[in-house]
Amino acid sequence: MLGGEYIVVAVALRLAAGLGYLMATSRGAIQPNPVSWLFWGLTPLVAFAAQVQDGVTPQAWVTLTLGTSPLLIFVVSVAKKSHWRVGRFDALCGGSAAAGIVLWQISSDPSLAIVFSILADILASIPTLAKAYKTPSSERASPYFVSMLSMTVTLLTISDWKFLECTFPLYMLLINTAIFSVVRLRSGQLDGRPHKQGGRHRRRPAALFVAAPPGARVPPFHDALLTEPDFGAERLCHASGSVPV
Questions:
Q1: pTM of the complete model
Q2: CA-wise closest residue to 153 among 171, 175, 178, 173
Q3: Cβ-contact 147, 93 below 8 angstroms
Q4: What average pLDDT does this structure show over 92-118?
Q5: How many of the other CB atoms lie within 10 Å of CB of 21?
Q6: pLDDT-based confidence at 59, cuts 50/70/90?
Q7: If DSSP codes are grouped into helix, strand and coil, which group holds residue 244?
Q8: Cα 218 to the chain's mean position, in Å?
Q9: 133 or 193: which leads in pLDDT
Q10: What is the pLDDT of residues 154-188, one digit of tens each?
Q11: Closest by Cα among 165, 170, 157, 152 to 55
Q12: DSSP characters over 175-214
């Protein structure tokens, strides 16, 4: 187990992950799903409020940090119009996530509030998981990996494993692992530079062999001749009986 002072490391890692994603969003290098990032900002704040009701702990400050950078990413992506286009499925997930937050408002039980916040966060994460699977180049794997490290450090600082203290960080570790794995496996990226899509090698066309007349001088064969066939030249060769050069 780690001492409580390592919470500073967890917060710094989380802020670094958010800053990297924010800069990439500002440059238009990636297209965050606004539904996911809006609720990724709101649900940690719900969890933080629930943790505060049970008493402020170092882990609660990590939860608060989890809600800060996503809201900034949401604002920047909308302001710069660099966000992913929201469809009906995204809106449905967002509406369901909002319902989870409303259920927390109705409940006065902090443990139930954590459950509703996690449920809302899962529903908000589905659009990004689907987007990462279909278009991995619209995401970066590295920020999610750094968030995984942050949540791991957070969990290692917990000495008394109460439900309110460990549930949300554990969930965050799992959801970041899931998104990182999807992006990593679908695009083969780790540092955020997606591989070119459609990396199929084009088949080289077969060489054209035309019979040369007796006594004709045949030029040496080179790989450079293996280019796109010139069908006009082929017809000319057939007509004249010469060899293309």
A1: 0.67
A2: 173
A3: no
A4: 75
A5: 28
A6: low
A7: coil
A8: 56
A9: 133
A10: 899 888 888 877 888 899 899 999 999 999 998 86
A11: 165
A12: HHHHHHHHHHHHH--SSS-PPPSS-PPPPPPPPP--PPPT
